[in-house]
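Need residues for this backbone.
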């Protein structure tokens, strides 16, 4: 591993004193992989009982674990393809715990890719309410969409917008907003050599200026009485206490909350910024030498008041041809009711949206909700995202495979499967958890596992 920048080391020694040496050793690694169980699909203890990897718990996250085998390759396991877990740094798991989203609420994740915090929030919301996951970089937004569908999230709207455009449209709309701000990335040094090469004091200062601008826009979208969580994966006080201090001075209607503190949750350091507000001690610092994970900073705010905005329920708006095709598929394939609201057609794609289209129309929306499938002339073809949020008992035909069955690997590699099936759509599952679709035709199952998922390696971007 390349050495840390001299100026970074000097700064940390000045702030941490004798503690700096153990901090720097911990930050250098080795990197320990975190695994967060996807509670939309399986209970944490049920997963732990079947886990192919030795696990130890993350103290602040009941669904979070550390993989104790450094040789394990959890991203290649079929359970990963089935969406049973997300690989995430334990420090990042604290975000959804601190934000504490509730079922039925409206929540915004303003910088959502690659999707770790988004999918954690969705699981805590139990796939209810409205979750907007925004990512301003189009390429990263694609990764976000892949993770949202793999984990079976159905109530998320994926947007590709600037914070200002969203704030201009959605003033005071959300119960809770997460700002996982772009930062200098000091907490990523152990697993990202590029973060070390790119670091400089100037970058720290530029990041702090950007973070203030984003946080100020985010505050506009928090309803009175709502919650705002600011997060970074860096240790620089300019980007942490400094940003929070500036925010408190400019927003007297927000207060900094002092959350419950497991032993690893250190306090913020007001003495590290000039004229720091004493309330900065209520912030949370996670250090790599004090617990699992490679470090985060969190500040949780509560806005004064209790006003809840009017939020219209989305109506279905499907043209007759599209509705007939969807209803035909649903009757032949599905053993669960068709949603009675929120069905929309966007070009040739049919979605279920949790938010009235009038609220998002005109914004850059990548996915306005759960992507059910496409309209092909007068025929409906289901999407992979539909499959990944189902259970075998919710369809008329399912092939549920045991982990040791060689057909699991064959399916994930795109090979056809044999079987005597009634012509139509078949859900392929692994021990009760969906993997994707197949199409029964003339005594065999045509493999419809997406081609872009057959290549190994795309999930390695996880950790956020």
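Answer:
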């Amino acid at each position: 591993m390349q050495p840390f920048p001299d100026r970074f080391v000097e700064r940390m020694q000045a702030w941490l004193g004798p503690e700096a040496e153990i901090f720097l050793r911990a930050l250098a690694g080795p990197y320990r992989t975190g695994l967060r169980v996807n509670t939309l699909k399986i209970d944490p203890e049920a997963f732990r009982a079947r886990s192919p990897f030795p696990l130890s718990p993350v103290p602040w996250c009941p669904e979070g674990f550390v993989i104790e085998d450094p040789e394990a390759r959890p991203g290649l396991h079929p359970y990963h393809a089935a969406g049973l877990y997300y690989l995430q740094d334990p420090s990042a798991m604290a975000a959804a715990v601190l934000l504490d989203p509730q079922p039925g609420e409206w929540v915004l994740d303003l910088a959502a890719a690659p999707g770790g915090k988004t999918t954690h929030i969705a699981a805590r919301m139990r796939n209810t309410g409205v979750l907007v996951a925004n990512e301003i970089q189009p390429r990263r937004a694609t990764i976000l969409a892949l993770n949202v569908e793999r984990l079976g999230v159905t109530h998320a709207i994926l947007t590709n917008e600037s914070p200002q455009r969203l704030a201009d449209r959605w003033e005071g709309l959300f119960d809770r907003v997460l700002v996982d701000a772009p930062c200098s990335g000091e907490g990523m040094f152990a697993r990202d050599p590029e973060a070390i090469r790119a670091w400089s004091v100037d970058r720290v200062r530029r990041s702090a200026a950007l973070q203030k601008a984003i946080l100020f826009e985010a505050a506009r979208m928090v309803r009175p009485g709502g919650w705002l969580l600011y997060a970074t994966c860096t240790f620089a006080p300019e980007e942490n206490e400094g940003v929070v201090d500036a925010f408190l001075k400019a927003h007297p209607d927000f207060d900094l909350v002092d959350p419950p503190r497991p032993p690893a949750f250190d306090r913020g350091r007001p003495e590290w910024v000039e004229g720091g507000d004493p309330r900065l001690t209520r912030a949370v610092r996670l250090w790599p030498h004090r617990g699992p994970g490679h470090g985060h900073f969190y500040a949780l705010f509560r806005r004064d008041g209790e006003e809840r905005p009017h939020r219209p329920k989305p109506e279905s708006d499907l043209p007759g041809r599209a509705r007939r095709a969807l209803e035909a598929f649903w009757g032949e394939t599905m053993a669960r009711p068709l949603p009675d609201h929120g069905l929309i057609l966007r070009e040739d794609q049919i979605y279920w949206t949790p938010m009235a289209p009038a609220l998002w129309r005109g914004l850059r929306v990548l996915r306005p909700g759960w992507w059910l499938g496409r309209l092909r002339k007068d025929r409906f073809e289901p999407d992979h995202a539909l499959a990944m949020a189902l259970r075998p008992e919710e369809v008329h035909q399912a092939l549920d495979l045991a982990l040791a069955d060689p057909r699991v690997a064959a399916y994930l590699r795109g090979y056809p499967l044999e079987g005597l099936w009634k012509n139509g759509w078949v859900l392929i599952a692994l021990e009760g958890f969906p993997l994707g679709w197949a199409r029964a035709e003339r005594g065999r199952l045509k493999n419809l596992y997406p081609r872009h998922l057959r290549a190994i390696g795309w999930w390695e971007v996880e950790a956020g």
